[in-house]
Design a protein that fits this description.
With about 475 residues, the chain is α/β, with parallel strands linked by helices. It is built from 17 helices and 15 strands. The chain has a seven-stranded parallel beta sheet with strand order 3-2-1-4-5-6-7, with helices on both faces. A five-stranded parallel beta sheet has the order 10-9-8-11-12, with helices on both faces. Helix 14 packs across helix 15. The longest helix has 18 residues. The radius of gyration is 23 Å and the shape is globular.
Length: about 475
Amino acid sequence: MSYPHSVIFIHYHLRGGGVTKVISHAQETLNKLGINSAVIVGEEPTIDFGIKNIGVIEDLAYSTNKPSYKPNQLRQQAYDKAKQLLGSMPDIWHIHNHSLGKNLTTPLLVKSLADDSQRILLQPHDFAEDGRANNYKLIKQNLDNFSATLYPQGMHIHYAFINNRDLTFMANANACKSNLHYLPNAVDFSSSNTAEELKLCNGKFFLYPVRGIRRKNLGEMLLWSSIAEEDDLFAITLAPKNQVAIPIYNDWVEFSNRQNLNILFDAGNKYDYDSLIKSCDSFISTSIAEGFGLGFLEASLAEKPLIGRKLPEITNEFEDVGVSFDTLYQSLNIKSEFIDIDLLQEKITAGIKYSYSAYELKISKQDYDDCINSTITDDGVDFGKLDEELQQALISKVCKDEKIKKEISNYLPSLTPAQPSTINNNQKIIKETYNLNKYGQTLLSIYENILNSKIKVDEEIDANKF
């Protein structure tokens, strides 16, 4: 196998979360083989994640500003920083989430590197085209030659995806299939055996070990809390750091306090994380969108049951290798009589209009009808499709009216935890399938493919086909 001598990783930041873990795993793999690596980010990390050799280019941090300098100037910054960190230019530039629209500088850097014959691995974990209309609009309005800039294509430019869903989207968008790779995350969850057991409640303790951004659907966790036993406790581990997400999160905290719900927010900054895991009766997940879906695997590795919502487009891949999620529900349908349907229809109409405009798509009456009919069905409305206002209105009704609370409790799916035998079997499969050694072998195989590729720029990927 042809190994690279050195690799540069690029991301907006190193904060607690999935991409940071991926970079850590990749660097660990390279270190074992004596391959030199470094990481360039847009801001100085405030926590030590064990990642070494870090450099900062501030222009790569989250920003909605359009760069005022030319791409080749930015490329030179990256070259200078790489030489400072590695002593020489890297063999491969491994760049994460360049096309997400969190920064308009990153795609310009990627395109400039590609045009300068640098060998590149692009690893998108999320897409602006996938429900992030504001990000997409920002990119489309500010990047010239949109598709070619955002998704350069060439024999020396490869893409890695954490799930087959995203890989298929890219393949359908005129991408060279031989340059697309499936690279599922490694999972190496571990917790301290010496962690203290906490007594935080007299009932059951449900832990949601995530950062409370919008897609985590916190309202659904609050709904379960509103119908749970009086002594039960629900906790979410981290508050968001994103300035857009913080006000939404804070509103949920204030709402929970007004309704006297037994919710512990930002628990990971109040208690030892390992102690929270050791003390909980079960993990819970109410997320409505994920990239890889690490939380679906970590519960079994922590020898805890997982309850809540499954995401077939993500969990199907895990189920295909034998992991069981039989106790999770696919939707949480609420009878229409408990929801302001007129207001919901207004919100759907406004949302469609905005999204289609942001994505520059033509809209028809049929589009409106299809979206409304898929949201408001004979079975009711999936709670996860409601916005914060409508979710809070329903939870308020449950908290104020015992009759409504009882009725909703009667027809919601049961939060039945998986049996210990299922958890043990899941753990065995996860350790065999998503271990760091397998991840490292796949990553190095992709690197070898890139090193053996010719330097040649091809037709751009058609981003409009996503």
